[in-house]
Amino acid sequence: MSPKKTSFPKQDIRVLLLEGVSQTAVDTFKAAGYSQIDYHAKALPEDELKARIAEAHIVGLRSRTQLTAEVLAEAKRLVAIGCFCIGTNQVDLDAAEVAGIPVFNAPYSNTRSVAELVVAQAVMLMRGIPQKNAECHRGGWSKAATGSHEVRGKTLGIIGYGHIGTQVGVLAEALGMRVVFHDIETKLSLGNARAASGLNDLLARADVVTLHVPETPATKNMFGAAQIAAMKRGAHLINASRGTVVDIDALAAALDAGHVGGAAVDVFPVEPKANGDEFLSPLRGRDNVILTPHIGGSTLEAQDNIGVEVAAKLVRYSDNGSTLSAVNFPEVTLPEHEGSLRLLHIHRNVPGVLSKINETFSRHALNIDGQFLRTDPKVGYVVIDVSADEAQANALKDELAAIPGTLRTRVLY
Ligand SMILES: NC(=O)C1=CN([C@@H]2O[C@H](COP(=O)(O)OP(=O)(O)OC[C@H]3O[C@@H](n4cnc5c(N)ncnc54)[C@H](O)[C@@H]3O)[C@@H](O)[C@H]2O)C=CC1
Ligand SMILES: O=C(O)C(=O)COP(=O)(O)O
To answer: Mean pLDDT across the stretch 273-302?
Structure first.
């Protein structure tokens, strides 16, 4: 990537990186000419987050930092947000959109890491290894096959058959498991996996149930006492999706009652804010539960790939205006604009804005080399490549900024 000049000099663009995102992200920004990088190994307390985000043009975070509407209200200069992970539920996506801020994530880079962990957990749970491990640590020794099973020939039920769920299915089939899945969308089955006829059908059949849905209003507490009761007695539950998806008290009760044979849980309704803070959960202290501190995607391979993927998307937006793969914003894929200046105009999607933009251009009688427009119900994003010098482009930018409904304007040289 060759450093390109933007209306706002690159050396003044401040990049705030939180939660110890990979060094590959820093390297990607630096290689693209961004030198002002404020790097933090941890999430920041809210007060400090507000103070730092007020100065930032680009922010990168993982799943812990909550970018609420209140925090975003402080982010007066912010042009883009990068979630260096898959989930984007920690960001108020609507508030970001109406502030004219696209949000990017890494939809694939850590999926394999989660899938490997989940399949390993299925094997461990079916063998009763968590209990045997705990017993040995206490000096116990109980060599027996009771309650210990191969996964071969057993049924894995996958709820949410997306990027992670499908990979879990493929790996599980390689171990000889039967795979059934449930999704709200019609999905192409990979291998011999089969769609269940509904969630209850899956629960009635599965020896191990694993959740891979995003956090949405519909998935909050979607796995409660009724769903747990519908599982086969002694079946195991794995949750590496989001902590809010499972009613954790209902799970604890079902484990105590022996209805659920074991569980592996990586995500929790409330997670400690920082390493070293106490982890509180009703699931603590049970030998048949594998507890992990939200590390499903935390492998060096995944983190390095995510660093490059998300930083490259942020650089591309900052340098070129492309919003390809933004999760909350009209998506525009843009060619390079050699020989033209590029004006970006983000506005509320209300009647009359486009005609005012076009009037502005016709007043200046400049040659338009390219025009790109995408809208969604809330926001319109117009990109105009124009043969103009810097002074003309800046004059145009000021006029565009004055159009009622404008959220943001930028010029890319
Ligand atoms: N533990 C960890 O460290 C990690 C956790 N995750 C979590 O895993 C989630 C899933 O990741 P991907 O597979 O990449 O997402 P994805 O978007 O590719 O797949 C999610 C699937 O769930 C389905 N779905 C949505 N609502 C549903 C519902 N109510 N019932 C059944 N299916 C439903 C969707 O149609 C989609 O097929 C992420 O959103 C994130 O929250 C992701 C990476 C790491
Ligand atoms: O990718 C996700 O959605 C995850 O849950 C991983 O989050 P993290 O980057 O480990 O904070």
So the answer is: 97
